[in-house]
Specification:
561 residues; six-stranded mixed sheet; 35% helix; disordered N terminus; disordered C terminus
């Protein structure tokens, strides 16, 4: 996490000591979201390495704890404790959330057939369209050293599956529609497959297991393997595969936390004792539909946000003219490869400085640079980029395993030969509007906009940028040490997927950015993908030195606006 001191409160913030009744609570919420021991009243959220996703989590905390509504634009304009307190104080008392917080009301009564959530509907449709395949497997890889008891571990896995209904849900079809069928714990105990093998073969064996397919209509969405070095019984890889319909990247922490607790309890021959979850995934599904309302109701949240997107995405290109090596096949194959991306510490520090001086997030700098490089490669001047949003705005969802991610379309306008500084202004304005209308489920957005459909490409965008949120967590199982991560798969969901994260550091200093560019091998060769990354890195170097460099042609300083 990169930290820096904010020398003066931004415009619109209240002075320290203003005495708002919310300031102490807000200080605590800021610190929780940022993972810091303390945040001062005038510390700038974004100077403390907060980003857009963290800002949305904070807004969700404010909604849950204070029962007050704040939008992302308001927060960007006053991103301090004092600023948020002043913004809330200036709002009418009626500025309450449009829907009650999840944890503040009893879960709704469940119908006989619980429908899929909106996010699950999209994956259910893709599973039907493409047939069983590993594209949406989520492989969680724990590299462990020490003594392990496989029987106890298997029991602990069963405890975790019993705790989280999403992990024991299958999706049968009735009258043409899938529904959630939550199995009782005694019917949902996942077996732990145990494999002893030469350690030189373990990576290949793990990769093979990670690509086993699920039939979501009948298969439990979690499988597990324990690979042990046949010559060293202290060296293991625990591989847990979760189908995306039951979990996302943010599910890794509650899943591993609960597995650690359950394994520790079972080693003492005790059942795990943990606080009851405030709700389960099917409860969220029903709450989500109530909160968004009916698209046919012009006053509903869903209807109002769809109206925004119809305007914001009018005339969006069906397909970007990316510099592919081969023509697009009639049906996307999704077989993928990747090239590594590394941004060193010095460039990382300059990018952070550029973001802070420009009043944007580091993600926005990377988005603008990616759009500029794509424009320079011949992709045009209207660059839609998809990005995942967590969809966990309510703190009642923090401890839940489930699939909450939504995809957001960030339309980036590079026309008129803008300078990079001007492009950042455009990206900031467009992104804040997009984040303020992020609740529309992607499949409903596609239905509402009705773009030209094709099984050869993703609708509305073919390029994805994800920054932050990479799950690398320590493992503290009794008698074991190691790390956990979401393993990479040889698949590509999109034409280009740029997945980046800041390298962690103990003191909060800039350590660099690392990640991968994922691409389908039926479109791109590795040299082409590598050239795109080289161009992006070179462009970032240039604009941190010369923010008035134009997008269209190097060396020009004319701003086309």
């Amino acid at each position: 996490m990169v930290t820096s001191q904010h020398t003066a409160p931004p415009a619109g913030t209240a002075p320290r000591g203003a005495g708002s009744p919310h300031e102490e609570i807000l200080r605590s919420l800021f610190a929780q979201v940022l993972g810091l021991p303390r945040v001062e009243t005038d510390d700038d959220f974004f100077d403390l390495e907060g980003d857009s996703l963290a800002a949305m989590r904070l807004i969700g905390r404010v909604r849950s704890v204070l029962g007050r509504e704040l939008n992302i634009r308001e927060f960007f304009n006053a991103p301090t404790v004092a600023g948020m307190a002043a913004t809330l104080a200036a709002k009418a008392p009626s500025a309450a959330p449009a829907a009650p917080p999840l944890g503040g009301t009893p879960p709704p009564a469940r119908p006989a057939r619980v429908p899929l959530s909106y996010a699950q509907q999209r994956l259910g449709f893709l599973a039907h369209l493409q047939g069983p395949n590993p594209t949406y497997n989520l492989p969680i890889e724990l590299r462990l050293s020490g003594h392990i008891d496989p029987d106890t571990l298997e029991h602990a896995l069963a405890d975790v599956v019993a705790r989280h209904e999403a992990l024991r849900t299958v999706f049968p079809e009735e009258r043409g529609a899938l529904f959630q069928d939550v199995l009782p714990p005694e019917r949902a105990r996942p077996p732990l497959r145990r494999v002893a093998c030469p350690w030189a073969e373990v990576d290949a064996r793990v990769a093979e297991a990670a690509q086993q397919v699920f039939d979501i209509t009948v298969d439990l969405p979690l499988r597990a393997w324990l690979f042990t070095d046949e010559r060293d019984a202290q060296r293991h890889i625990l591989l847990i595969i979760v189908h995306h319909i039951a979990g996302d990247g943010s599910s890794l922490r509650p899943l591993l936390r609960d597995l650690t607790h359950a394994y520790g309890s079972r080693t003492r021959a005790e059942p795990p004792r943990w606080p009851e979850l405030p709700l389960q995934y099917p409860d969220f599904t029903l709450w989500q539909r109530t909160a968004l309302g009916d698209a046919r109701d012009p006053e509903s949240t869903l209807s109002r946000q769809i109206a925004y997107w119809k305007g914001a995405l009018a005339g969006i290109p069906d397909e970007l003219a990316l510099p592919t090596d081969r023509p697009r096949p009639a049906v996307a194959g999704h077989r993928g490869d990747r090239v590594d991306v590394t941004i060193d510490r010095a460039l990382h520090e300059r990018l952070v400085h550029l973001a802070q001086t420009g009043g944007v997030t580091l993600f926005m700098v990377l988005q603008a640079a990616l759009a500029a490089v794509l424009t320079r490669s011949g992709a045009g001047e209207d660059i839609p980029i998809g990005t995942p949003v967590e969809g966990r705005g309510d703190e009642a969802l923090d401890d839940l395993v489930g699939f909450f991610v939504n995809m957001l379309v960030l339309r980036t306008d590079t026309s008129g030969a803008p300078t990079f500084r001007r492009l950042l202004d455009r990206v900031r304005a467009a992104d804040l509007e997009a984040y303020a209308h992020q609740d529309v489920p992607f499949d409903q957005l596609v239905e509402a906009l009705n773009p030209n459909r094709s099984v050869a490409r993703h609708p509305l965008f073919q390029v994805v940028l994800s920054f932050g949120g990479a799950a690398h967590v320590g493992v503290d199982l009794p008698g074991l040490s190691g790390t956990a991560r979401i393993a990479q798969m040889p698949v590509a969901k999109f034409d280009l997927g740029l997945y980046l994260d800041e390298r962690p550091s103990a003191d909060g200093s800039a350590q660099g950015i690392a990640g991968v560019l994922e691409f389908p091998t039926d479109l791109f060769d590795r040299p082409t993908a590598q050239r795109l990354i080289d161009d992006l890195t070179a462009f970032l170097e240039q604009v941190t030195e010369t923010p008035d460099l134009t997008v269209r042609a190097e060396g020009r300083t004319h701003d086309g606006e």
